[in-house]
Amino acid sequence: MNKNKRNVIDKAHELFIEQGYHATSIQDILNHSGISKGSFYNYFTSKGELFKAVFNLIQDNMELERDKLLIGEDITDKDIFIKQVSFMMELSWENKIIQLIEEVFVSNDSELIIFIKQSRYFFLNWIYERFLNIFPKSQEKYMVDCAVLYSGMMKNIMHTSKVLNRMIPKQQMAKYCLDRVMTILDDISRKDIHLFVPENMSQLLPLSNHKGFFNNEFSLATLNVKKVIEKQLDPKDPKLTTYLNLLYFIQEETMNNKEVSRRFLVESALTTLKTGSEFNDTKEFLKYEQILADMKYSPIT
């Protein structure tokens, strides 16, 4: 990515957090980033488009760091899930995500409002995927309901605590909601009732036009390989941690646009990752490797 464009995004991020979205003018962004108006419009068609870039940057970094918390841990451990959720809440708080989203909803920018609404499905899908890790496979058909309930509880508790100016510890919120969902899960499992089915998740995601800021296709391919690795290897297998570390290293290096001199490190990591006989011939890994090749990264031969 063009360094000047990335600088504009970073500077706009600072201003949005400090002043809010509406209070920040394009001229403020020009002054803070040190670019001309012509350069700005060469990168973004509007302040709304810049907001999307900032929002996606926050989300991409959050997801990357959140998933790192799983490295070397048992994916079925509920405490790790709570730790991940707490981390996301803390980062959202620091970046004033709730405040920024509220500002978008009271704006007249219908395209930006749709963008924010659709981005919610990705968080919902992540909760659903993690619940599939945490709870028994026999309860899989109730997981969409549980994910919807959990995300709804979290959203409303965070909003209410903000309005009341009451600082509830993030970990306490995350655990409280998970405990409530577990109670509900026991009830609906016993009665065998649910409102949604697993297929509904795949129906929801295509509705979103959320575009990963750096490379959405690559992010999705990375996630798919991660799932394959976690499925093929035992949680206690030391190779699991090694492979996941390599995946996250490659994603972080490419996402943050590291200097060209680090290309060798990315390709070295890819070369080591390719030795994973448990998954290197799967369609997910072959797709991942092809996308990296299109990005000019290839295994060292």
Structure report:
- By secondary structure, the chain is mostly helical.
- The chain folds into three domains: about 1-45, Homeodomain-like (Arc Repressor Mutant, subunit A); about 55-210, no CATH class; about 215-300, no CATH class.
- It is about 70% helix and about 0% strand.
- The chain contains 14 helices and no strands.
- The radius of gyration is 21 Å and the shape is globular.
- About 20% of the residues are buried.
- Residues about 210-215 have low confidence and may be disordered.
Task: Write a short abstract of this structure.
This protein is mainly alpha-helical and 301 residues long. It contains 14 helices and no strands.
Secondary structure elements and their pairing?
Blueprint: H1 3-19, H2 26-33, H3 37-43, H4 47-68, H5 78-94, H6 97-105, H7 110-134, H8 143-163, H9 170-191, H10 199-204, H11 216-232, H12 238-255, H13 263-273, H14 283-294
Helix pairs in contact: 1-2, 1-4, 4-5, 5-9, 7-8, 8-9, 11-12, 11-14, 12-13
Order of helices and strands: HHHHHHHHHHHHHH
Uncertain runs are: 208-215
The biggest beta sheet reads: none
Tally of separate domains: 3
Fraction in beta strands:
under 5%
| Average pLDDT level | 87
Question: Count of DSSP E strands?
Answer: 0
